[in-house]
Amino acid sequence: MKTVATRFAPSPTGPLHIGGVRTALFNWLYSKNKGGKFYLRIEDTDKERSKDEFKIQIINSLKWIGIDFEGVEYIQSNKIDDHINIANELLKKGLAYKCYCSSEEIEEQKKRAKQKKIPYIYDRKWRDKSETDAPKEIQPVIRFKSKIEGKSVLKDLVQGNIEIENNTIEDFVILRADGSPTYNLSASVDDHLMGMTHIIRGDDHKINTFKQIQIYDAMNWKVPSFAHIPLIHTIEGKKLSKRDNASTLDDYSKIGIMPNALRNYLLRLGWSYKDKEIFDLDESIKYFNLEGIGKSPSKLDISRIYSINEHYIKNIDENDLFNFLITYCETFQEKITDLAQKKVKNSLHFLKNKAKTLEDIYKNSKFLINDSVQIEKEDKKLLDETAIKIIKLFSNEINKLTDFTRETLEPIINDLIKNNNTNFKGVGQPLRICLTGSKFGPGIYDILSALGKEEVSRRLSQIR
Q: Given this model, what pLDDT does residue 358 score?
């Protein structure tokens, strides 16, 4: 039996879309599950829109989420001569033909189809015409001779059997007038040259699959197995596009979503295994199959992504979490000193409480990272005379302490509550504002413990 081979074939015309990441993940997991190989093909034949920066972003995005590929990326533009040779071979075999219709003629055909409210299909005018009738001023395109009669059945590994009337597939262009190959020709030739056994891609490619199978049959190549996965929709039920917010991996890494969490979410987006929700990498590979992919579109739910990310924050090893956090901070926020890193690491057990993202942990950590405290204008209004009095009394009491622990601090805070006719918030909130710059954040005992007596005294002494 031939080794399973799959591929992911993005165009470097923009940042990698979240739907593309899921397609890559499903291909990668299927190959891993079957002990096969996974390849990356960069389809860069659109020279005007293709950019190296997007190719780099695609590769880095796959690396970030943990998807590796065999060898180096396959560059489609390097294989154009092979694509053109196949087009010419089809022409010689009489399985393709030169079409001399002008662009005006094609536009007129499309206009008539629109008026009749029917799908446009090229009228095959030049399919059986002699080239002696060809106008000399028009550079022809080359069209594939699609089947006219009967039906074709695609045995789709996700959607089941899909049947189509052959006469609904037009004689599609395989070489443009400038001699450049089209998508359906290039993809077919590349998949054959790369030895692909399974093509797993979005179900918006179904009509392309019928066209590509005809090219395979015409060349007497072994046809790969096809699986078309439903697209990802927005929460409103619309097709997700690159213009939507949170549509690329960069959008998620910037807000502190961890790669393992996003990979877990994308795995479960349209795929299921029993009632299991959380999968580590080994489990993802072990249990992944095409049978578990649903037939309906999935909705991208950011709240679910936050929920899974929170699960990972709470449950992964704190050393790993710390490394993720430092990488995130230095990439998107600021470089943290060694001393501040040590404080953050020692306090991670409480800094991660209620945090849904790495950004949340960073914000909770700022009072440890920064030596100076900047109090927000609205929070400063809360430091009234009573609050200032409580801060000074607290400061006086802790200066008497030799042991700075929760056990020694609790009686001081309880006495302040009692003697000033207030509650825990009346003491804790002004202290939190003075020590962190915000009324929001970790618990007051965690803040006091993390800063230590000297730093607490220093920060409180600056309050007038």
A: 98
CA 153 to the chain's CA centroid: 33
CA proximity to 310, closest of 265, 344, 269: 265
Q: Which helix (H) or strand (E) is 432 found in, with range?
A: helix 424-436
Produce one character per residue of 448-463: b if its CB has 16 or more CB atoms within 10 Å, e if not.
bbbbebebbeebbeeb
User: Is the distance from CB of 190 to CB of 158 less than 8 angstroms?
Assistant: no
How far apart are the C-alpha atoms of 161 and 135, rounded to whole Å?
Answer: 43
Q: Give the bridge partners for 160, in sequence order.
A: 156
2 residue type, one letter: K
Q: What is the CA radius of gyration of the chain?
A: 31
Give all strands of the β-sheet with 5-8 in edge-to-edge order: 5-8, 37-42, 74-75
Concatenated DSSP letters of 289-319? -GGGB-SS-EE--HHHHHHHHHHHHHHS-HH
Distance in angstroms (rounded) separating the CA atoms of residues 329 and 306: 18
Query: Which SS3 state, helix, strand or coil, does residue 242 take?
Result: coil
Count the Cβ atoms, other than its own, within 10 Å of residue 75. 15
- Which two tokens mark 36? 């096969």
Please state at what angle helix 444-461 crosses helix 358-369, rounded to 10 degrees: 30
Q: What tokens were used for 402? A: 């030799």
pTM: 0.90
Structure tokens at 103: 């662009």
pLDDT digits (tens, 9 = 90+) for 339-397: 999 999 999 999 999 899 999 999 999 999 998 888 888 888 899 999 999 999 999 99
CA distance 362 to 445: 19
Query: Other C-beta atoms within 10 Å of 25: how many?
Result: 23
Angle between helices 424-436 and 358-369 (to 10 degrees): 80
